[in-house]
Amino acid sequence: MELTQLEYFLEVARMEHLTKAAEVLSITQPALSHSISKLEAELGVPLFERKGRNLKINRYGVMFSKHVERILQEVARGKQEIEEYTHPDSGVIHLAYLSILGVDLIPRLIRDYQKMNLSITFELTQGDKGAILKQIEDGYSDIMITSEKPVNDTYEWVPILSLPLYLVVSSEHRLANKSSISLGEITGETFIGLKHNCSLRDSLLTRVHQMNFTLTSTYDAEDLPTVAGFVAAGLGLSVLPKTAGLNLEGLRWIPIEDEGWHWEVGLHIKNERFLSPATAKFVTFIKEKTSAFSS
Question: Is-annotated flag, keyword Transmembrane (predicted)?
Answer without folding.
Answer: no
